[in-house]
Amino acid sequence: MPIEILIVDDAPNIVLSLEFLMKKEGFSVRSVGDGDAALQEVEERKPDLVLLDVMIPKKNGYEVCEAIRADPRNQGVKIIMLTAKGREVEQEKGLALGADDYVTKPFATRELVLKVRGMLGLPTD
Amino acid sequence: MSWQWVVPLVSVLYLGLLFAVAYYADRRASMGRSLVNNPTIYTLSIAVYCTSWTYYGSVGRAAETGVGFLPIFLGPTLMAALWWFLLGKIIAISKANHITSIADFISSRYGKSPMLGRMVTLFVVIGIMPYIALQLKAVAVSLDVLVHRLDAGLAMKGPTAPWDDTALYVAMILALFSILFGTRHLDASERHEGMVTAIAFESIVKLGAFLLVGVFVTFGLFDGFGDLFARALADPQVRRLMTFDAMPGGYVSWFSMTLVAMMAVLFLPRQFQVLVVENVNPAHIRQAAWLFPLYLLAFNLFVLPIALAGRLIFAGQGMDPDTFVLTLPIHGDQVWLALLVYVGGLSAATSMVIVEAIAMSTMVSNDLILPLLLRFRAAFQEDLSGMILTIRRGIIIGLMLLGYLYFRLIGESHTLVSIGIISFAAVAQFAPAILIGIYWQGVSRRGAMGGLMAGFLVWSHTLLFASFAKSGWIAESVLTHGPWGISWLKPQALFGLTVFDPITHSVFWSLLANIGVLVLISLFDRQTAVEQIQALNFVNVFDKGARGGNEYLWSGFVSVADLKKLVSRFIGPVQAESDFANYLQHRLLKLDERTQAPAHLVAFAEKRLTGAIGSASARVMVSSVVKGEELDLHGVMRILDETSQVIEYSQRLELKSRQLEAATRQLQEANERLQELDRLKDEFISTVSHELRTPLTSIRAFSEILRDNEEMEPADRRRFTEIIIKEAERLTRLVNQILDLARIESGKMEWHVAQVDLVEIVRDAMDSTHQLFENKSVRLNYQAPDHPVLLQADRDKIMQVVINLLSNAVKFCAPETGVVEILGREGVDGVGVTVLDNGPGIPREDLEKVFEKFHQVHQARDETQGVPLGTGLGLTICQRIIDRHQGRIWVESELGRGAAFTFLLPRDLQIQ
To answer: Could you state, in order of their start, the residue ranges of all structural domains in chain A?
Structure first.
């Protein structure tokens, strides 16, 4: 069974680039543009990892993160927050709400791919 | 044994006994073992309030109005509760200023005004005359009743010649007695210890006698209270008295009677005398405040039983109820008891007359006679002290004769109570000037004078003349039709007010006029320097620091010898010498007789004289010997300066603190605004950084993808490169717009205003956006006037707005089917442009928001490229530009039916 990645972002070009990067690693990729769709997707498919943008419509990234962690069945779901804000406070907030790691935009693609692989326990060299 | 001789003999013997008591007390006082320095004696002396009016009259009133006699005692009881601070303050003021009468008190408070003193004295004489007449009547009637047994009680004697009239002899004996008691020393501020002791003694006698009659009537003539009240209840006529219905005027009348009684117990001249002038120690007030009401209670215990008994026993005999106290014992054959009752009544009357006469003689001599006398006599002549005493004695005789005259004129036709009430109402007129004056510094001399005048005018019209009219002394038509037939001037229905009984009516109008005039004049009046100082002294009597010192008032030249000479003229050389020596020794001063007297010594002399001849006269006298300016203006100005500086300083402080408060508030508001602005700025920055980061993220991601994937399909490669270019363009646009907006908002934008043609601008804008429409196959319809539409504006900026509106319109239109219309507008309200599209429209709730920064309705996206089309700043910039041109821009839209953006501009722009 291939590893499944969920991309949550409302900027289509960013989604496009993330999709390209994840597919190239051989992961199965799905993407949604808002918080509600993201939660529904997590509920239904239990992806292995979620790339979660903070500023998305309907529910923001923090709320989605909190909701995912509130359900014990989602224990295996890893979360990496994509934050447009470089401010420490925002990152702390993400981690405090249960995110496993964060990546600030604009991100370096290699670093992102390594973080994702590391998080999934895959070799990183 | 003939009663005709026994009764006068008993009277004279009793008066002799009184004199012995007084003499003994004076002896004790001169030996330094004062009897008067005792709260019980003080309280008993206050009971001089209970006169023969109480003694005979309250039974008479109870026999006619039932419990209607009570307010006369309720008032004082209420007032006693206020004594501890009110009386305390009045006493403190009087002691500090050597005040010896109520006239002196008022005159001193209002700048030592001689005029005001004269006025008050005159009013007191007129107002109290009925009261003295009342005592004469009571003694005379009781004497007649006793002498003629029951006969006199049945029918009053007709008018008799004065020399055959008992009342005249009573008046003369009382005058003699008052002279003996009251004018032995000159200084009226010296206490009359003998008199006070005698009064206290009389208070015991009258209460004792009255209680004895009560007990005799209740338990001798009847079988106790139960029997008496049972029989009274059985009699329908008498039963009425035990309800409130018998009281004329009902509750309102109760209120007004209680009110005047409250004032009377403080401000009747005799009450002021015993309460204030004769007070040895202000601490005595504490006991008096509960013991005096108790005394009154005891006195009133048997009033109703005696009245009821009289009505039951003398039913239908036409007996005068005012004589029940006397006639009931006679009816019961208790002749000795009757004699004792007579002595009690005599006590009540004599105590009142003596104190009243002494108090009034001080006033009349100090405020009426002396100023006249001093005016006609050269300043340094002789020892006036003897003459002043003679004057006072003459005044007492005169007052008694006046009382007698009133009695002859009015007395026969009125009951005791109705006469007394007239005096009470008169005295109540002093209350505003005194009570308001000792708490409100602002009451001015003219205010007090105006108030008193108005009050007395109304009082004399509504009560005094009414009483004259009732006794037929002036035409009775005055009562029924008003004076000169003017109906709204009817004494007992002024301005058509008929709901009150005559007393309430008079009290209401007179006090209303009094207080109203006092307050009104005072509000608009300016006080003189002396007035301000005295007002300060009175109001702040307990506050030593705030009192303007009297010594500042004098700073002319006078030698110590001249000053001493002046004082000795009024109090005698021996007394003056010892007073001055005492004063100087107390201050550890040694002064040569010929040196200039220091200001405080002049002030001392004035105070010493005030005790003897009243504050107004004392002032006149001192100013007559102090050479130079009577009032040193500099001195006065200095105190006033100091006072007003303090006032000003505190006002400034107050102002400062108010300003500080305001500043703090403003600061808080500014701070809140700043915080709000800061929050908005943060929000803006975070939005801007988000808006910038999003294209940057795409650009970086795709650039790295292109770098890391050289083997990529050429189609993908081209697609990704295209995205990078679009995002870079968007980034550029965004940066430009942010800079534009920042320049506009910070006022740094340069505006090039010139005459421009709006039609031309629209055409140019259409040319610039032509490609957009072609790309999306959207049709553009154009309607505009065929002539130039001229206005003052910045050409490039307006073009920017039009281009922005056009590109927005294309953005939201569907490809192929999209239609955009652009209309030129020209009207009275200005010129403008409307851009319509047939896109999806804007929800109602977003109409207001579309002009907000970064507000993007329906994030319009390029379907093929997935790039958000707007920056979210375009409309905001449009709005700023139109605002700057003093025009307005708005949008109209319905969901699904497109949107119409319109801006209107004035033709003549006044841009700075």
So the answer is: 4-119
C-alpha dist (Å) from residue B238 to B316, B323, B417, B740? 12, 17, 20, 104
pTM above 0.80, yes or no: no
The residue of chain B with its CA nearest to that of A21 is: B705
Name beta bridge partners: A79. A50
Burial letters B441-469, b for 16+ CB under 10 A, else e: bebbbbbbbbbbbbbbbbbbbbbbbbbbb
**CB contact B713 to A (< 8 Å):** no
**Contact across the interface for B701 and A14, Cβ inside 8 Å:** yes
Our CA-based measurement puts residue A76 at a distance from the nearest CA of chain B, in whole angstroms, of 28
Question: Looking at the complex, does the CB of residue B701 fall below 8 Å from at least one CB of chain A?
Answer: yes
Q: What is the ipTM of this complex?
A: 0.92
Residue A9 has pLDDT above 60, yes or no: yes
What is the residue-wise DSSP string for B546-583?
A: GPPPGGGG--SB-BHHHHHHHHHHHH-HHHHHHHHHHH
> A106 and B702: CB-CB below 8 Å?
no
Mean pLDDT value across chain A: 86
Contact B698 A55 (CB under 8 A): no
Range list for CATH 1.10.287.130 in chain B: 640-749
Interface of A with B in 49-108 (CB under 8 A): 55, 84-85, 105-108
Nearest alpha carbon to residue B614 among B360, B265, B348, B788: B360
For CATH 1.20.1730.10, list the domain ranges present in chain B. Answer: 3-428
- DSSP string computed for B275-326: IIIT-S-TTHHHHHHHHHHHHHHHHHTTHHHHHHHHHHHTTTTT--GGGHHH
Predicted confidence (pLDDT) at residue B856 exceeds the cutoff of 70:
no
Summarised one tens digit per residue, pLDDT across range A94-117 is: 777 778 888 888 888 898 999 999
Third-level CATH fold of B3-428: Sodium/glucose cotransporter (1.20.1730)
CA dist list (Å): B523 to B228, B460, B526 = 58, 26, 9
Where in chain B do CATH 3.30.565.10 domains reside? 750-905
Residue B399 to residue B893: CA distance in whole angstroms: 100
CA distance A72 to chain B (A): 33
CATH of domain A4-119: 3.40.50.2300
DSSP code, position B814: P
Class of B640-749 in CATH: mainly alpha
How far apart are the C-alpha atoms of A71 and A49, rounded to whole Å? Answer: 15
Chain B residues whose CB is inside 8 A of the A106 CB are 693, 696-697, 699-701
User: What superfamily does domain B750-905 belong to in CATH?
Assistant: Histidine kinase-like ATPase, C-terminal domain (3.30.565.10)
The strand ranges marked E within B345-486 are: none
- Residues B552 and B599: beta-carbon distance below 8 Å: yes
